Amino acid sequence: MNHNVEPTNRMTDSAPKPVENDRAEPDLACFRARTPARVFAGRAGSSYRTEMLLGLRADHASALDAVRAEIVLERDLGAEFVSRWQLFEVASRAATKQEFLLRPDLGRLLSDEGRGAIVRHCPAGADLQVVIGDGLSAAAVVAQVPALLPLIAQHASTLGRQFGRPFFVRHCRVGILNEVGELLDPLAVVLLIGERPGLATAESLSAYMAYRPRPGDTDAQRNLISNVHARGVPVPEAARRILNLAARLRHLEASGAAVKEELPG
After folding, report:
1. What is the pTM of this model?
2. Are the CB atoms for 167 and 106 separated by under 8 Å?
3. 3-state secondary structure of 132
């Protein structure tokens, strides 16, 4: 028996050889460019890399600012914009931002003064009534509404639709649609409202829509076009979709779960 055979290093012999791939980094860059999600972020030990951690903290701070900020119409949307659209402000029953955050039910109801102002300033029975609400992101309203509102009005005019006078609701929740429907009886109400911000963007706007909404209506009677922002649904596309969906609500005389948005294939 030969005892002089050198042992084989099985660990070394069987270990996989590193694969050279010059495409790895370009591929990762392509993936990252297609989504705001933090994919292939890497790590330092069990933690995020410093650059990633600082980015997360900055985005978290932006989200907090968006939720807690208060909109001042002429400062944030511009005096010319406010004058052009004869934009006026009303409030919900939530008297402060803190109360708005703690009592969502109050954000769904208009103050008595607000109800009176809407009846005085807005024509009843419009084909399309736009309401602007701060919601959970003032930043979204400031970023998207100045470009979106004119496009909605332009498309409505092209289609021969009566466009109601828009107004702004401070400390607004989605249920405010019901109050507007009760007061003005428009065929369709569109609420442009700031979405709850995340760590990808604090500037995402939603358009909630309802056909002749009334008190007691729930989300089941509403339609939604969400994620209106630079890396989501572009403003021109959002305006087209809002008008197309409004026409569908008008045709079907209904809104909500039974009405599906028709998107081009």
Report:
1. 0.81
2. no
3. strand
List, in sequence order, the alpha helices (H) in 159-234: 176-184
Determine contact, residues 170/225, Cβ cutoff 8 Å: no
The CATH superfamily label for domain 67-252 reads Ethanolamine ammonia-lyase light chain (EutC) (3.40.50.11240)
Query: Among residues 196, 191, 255, 202, which one has the least CA distance to residue 229?
Result: 202
Residue 77: both structure tokens together: 């949307």
69 closest CA partner among 101, 92, 45, 37: 101
Sign of CA dihedral 154, 79, 69, 171: negative
The span from the CA of 218 to the CA of 216, in Å, is 6
Helices (H), the chain: 10-14, 24-33, 50-68, 73-77, 79-84, 97-102, 104-107, 112-121, 138-158, 176-184, 235-252
DSSP three-state, residue 181: helix
**211 - beta bridge partners?**
188
pLDDT in tens, the chain (265 residues): 555 555 554 444 455 554 444 555 667 677 666 666 666 677 777 777 777 777 777 766 776 766 777 999 999 999 999 999 999 999 999 999 999 999 999 999 999 999 999 999 999 999 999 999 999 999 999 999 999 999 999 999 999 999 999 999 999 999 999 999 999 999 999 999 999 876 567 899 999 999 999 999 999 999 999 999 988 999 999 999 999 999 999 999 999 998 998 876 5
Domain ranges of the chain: 67-252
Q: Are strands 88-91 and 167-170 parallel, antiparallel or unpaired?
A: parallel
